[in-house]
Amino acid sequence: MTEHLPVLQVVVPLIAAPLCALLRPGRAVWLLAMVTCALCLLIAALLLDRVLAQGVISYAMGGWPAPWGIEYRVDAANAYMLLIVAAIGAVVMAFARTVVEQRIRLPASKQPWFYATYLLCLTGLLGMIVTGDAFNVFVFLEISSLSSYVLISIGRDRRALTAAYQYLIMGTIGATFILIGIGFLYVMTGTLNMADLAARLPAVADTRTVRAAFAFLTIGISLKLALFPLHLWLPNAYAYAPSAVTAFLAATATKVAIYVLLRFFFTIFGAQFSFGTMRLDAILLPLALAGIFSASVVAIFQTNVKRMLAYSSVAQIGYMILGISLVSVTGLTAAISHLFNHALMKGTLFMALGCVSFRIGAVSLDRMAGVGRIMPWTMGAFVIGGLSLIGVPMTAGFVSKWYLILGALERGWWPVALLVLFTSLLAVVYIWRVVETAYFQPAPEGRATTGEAPLALLVPTWTLALANLYFGLDTSLNAGVARRAAEALLGVGP
Amino acid sequence: MNSETILPLALFIPLLSAFFIALNDGRPDWREGATLLGSLLLLGVVFSLLPAVATGARPTVDLLEFAPGLPLRLSVEPLGMTFACVAALLWPLNSLYSIGYMRGNQEQHQTRFYICFAIAIASTIGIAFAGNLLTLFIFYEALTLSTYPLVTHKGTEEAKQAGRLYLGILVGTSIGFLLLAIVWTWVVAGTLEFAPGGILAGKIDGPLVNVLLALYMFGIGKAALMPFHRWLPAAMVAPTPVSALLHAVAVVKAGVFSVLKVIVYVFGIDFLKDTGASSWLMWVAALTVLLASFVALTKDNLKARLAYSTVSQLGYVVLGAALATSMGVIGGSMQIVMHAFGKITLFFCAGAIYTAAHKTEVSQLDGLGRAMPFTFGAFLIGALSIIGLPPLGGSWSKWYLLVGAADAEQWALMAVLLLSSLLNVAYLLPVPARGFFAAAPAGGATQIPIREAPLACVVPLCLTALGCLWLFFQADSLYALLAPITVR
Amino acid sequence: MQILGLYNYWIFIVLMMCGFYVVISRGNLVKKLVGLNIFQTSVFILYISMGKIAGGTAPILTGMATIYSNPVPHVLILTAIVVGIATTALGLALVVRIHEAYGTIEEDEIHAQSEDEAL
Lengths: 494, 488, 119
Prior knowledge:
The complex is a heterotrimer of chains A (494), B (488) and C (119). Chain A has helices spanning 5-22, 27-54, 76-102, 111-130, 134-153, 159-189, 194-204, 208-225, 233-240, 243-268, 271-277, 280-300, 305-325, 329-360, 371-374, 376-390, 396-410, 414-440, 455-473, 476-490; strands at 57-60, 71-74. Chain A has 494 residues and is mainly alpha-helical.
């Protein structure tokens, strides 16, 4: 059984999704989805454990050996990513039931479809991570993208529809660019297997076709991961999607895209080609810095808190790209570690906002006035997530910030380190605007005085909030494994 | 039990007491009992470490591994021991005082107050016993965050503004400068341990030493070195027990303590003396001492005056450290202790005056001393200690600082120290003088009845005043404890 | 005549740019989807044509043919075509919903309505 773990990781949610759709509406659907997510998490944990103990796991799909068949290949980097995505998927699924039953504008008969779509999205994300086949990445990418368009579009606000449409257009352009890039690679090498590609590419690296493939892939993936200035789809999509969906997508979708970026540039093209020949770092670094800075500033001026956090996500993606553009073990550790930490903090923040909107029906700053007094637990989680976002010690956010500054200083890039620190202070500003409003301002007229969010929402929120604190102190997973993943990607170390 | 097992207890006792305080939200007596019990337990634990440390032991415990070669480490050395003793001694007194003050003024959210207070104390202990820079930084930030709800306790617009300034300066400087300095140190030295004699000698040279020192000194915003001192007067909006323990003892002392730690154990005073990198710091500190004293003269609000006095007195510690002589460092360390007792007395008195008479301005105090003889008597003692007159504790720290300045042959700085003492007289003594000798406001009866604050307020302030006296006779043992820190 | 010999790639590029231009320039949501479709279709042609070998037949082992086309890109693109159909269907469904919600499918009119909402 255990040798089939890599494929089970994808197949379990894939089979559960239609089952969910077929079941009669009711509690059982959620239970099935929840069990599926929990199983995924278990499989991911087992995989990580095995990879750390035994090294790379290769699985030949259907018994066809690579490079003819599709290979699922799990090393430290993607085992770590699987764990992030599966963990967030499970926690948010626990959160989603109450939101779906009471807050989403879906009739009860349609609710099973939500879970089915959610599981499909999870399937796509997990598949992109686990596969060792370039074309397979595209297929799973589209599975996750299509389902995420659907998930976004069921937000209560009608602007969710336009946001989903906009995302669909930009996402499809991005995915098609990736498809073109993969096609060019196939033309030059005649293979789609990642390891095989990596072996054959150096011989043909100095051709225009390979360089064009590189360019198409860069743009396509950057669109999916919302790299500044290709981030325009993100703020609206996150702002108008249902809170559970935002929490899930914000914590996973862009992360997986970054993982794909790492996979293509480090494993397939190789760091030497990507950063030595093509000088990708020279493009990524300024874009990352511009993204961090501009998105943080824009976030300060938002009145819709969800939108504010969405812009903050763009800035945080900038941090990850910055870490990648340092092209060192430390920098890459920072980026990979931040994938994990950012998933924790944004998951916490968006779920806390979900609790707020569950009770008071809005997440704009003026409506959130005084919320801290009536919903102490919710806002407590928000504050923890916010502190983690700022990068205060003893939170997960500090770990990634530490490695990022360390990486910048190792390269001797003083201004970069200073800018990272300065933008952390911008995060203080936008987080504290919310905190001050929630705790110091009197509640607005006419808002119903409701109590704390139900336990079904608070428990998942606090699970992630406490994880923020835990991983701020015990860094063996989010920094230790991240470092191994970084070493694996750079091809140094064990 | 040996010291290694006791050490983590010092950190966990305040946290545990915070937990029990939270459990007893609806029961004020139990809640405050938990505070008092926790504080007394902490006192016992901290003092049980003292004999071992005095005889040269350096108990060390690693809690977690943050990064390879970079653990979260608790380690006790004389400087931290001294600071922890001060905090542990003053917490029970302050708890007693808080109970009188908070009940006397019927403050809101008392449970939150006591919880944050206990967490702040835990952070202070963490700073005192930090075994490396990372641990220090972590608890430093925890202290900032746990005191933020205390500063903004009243929840008013004014409190919000003050909280903004407080957080803005403390978090801004610590993330902007201190973190950068720490990572830089890690990159060049490969370690963040506090080692006698410093870890930076030979690893960095030229003008970069100055830059790094500046990052540290201004990064430790809690030391209130000008121009990053504004948060301290702003924080006075907090209830008086907070101002007393946190903004006269725990928070600001954590700042100057960190300064001393960095100078003694990271740079090393020999290294600083050889490179001369700290000479600019002396002048910044001296300027802070003088300017803050002048500002204090202009303040009529009692707490604001005391706040600026604190800024000035903190400058002494930084000055002592910047002299980079062993006498200067010892004088600075003693100043932490002596000033703590003196200033907490003054704040206790200010709070007692507010509780009993609802007076906040110096000019309103005329004749009040006759109604509150104990309070004003204690104020006089505290003020004299801060000025540095024998037989009070403050005289010793001033003495060693003067000796340190003389060792460094900084005659101008000696003049600054003396001038500042005169200024202390000018802004502190008018308070008891008005209280005892000025005529009560017109219309008042000639015979003023005794009307003190609640007993829970008056007893602690008398005790801390006596403490100032007691410290005068403890200088020898304090010197003996502190002397090894500058020895390589 | 190398340039003309690569005519399949020229068709791919021209189609791709046409589609892309329509996506960018049109304000009508349906027309945008049409553009997107052309854009995707161009990539299908790229894949299909690169597997084709002049004179090659279908890769069936009959023992008769010695030259046959590479089937892998063709298979791959079947998947991509399915994805494309799904995308178009979903996009059109969204447009229907947008029309229900806003009463228009012109981008600038929707934008104007959203602006009003934000105020």
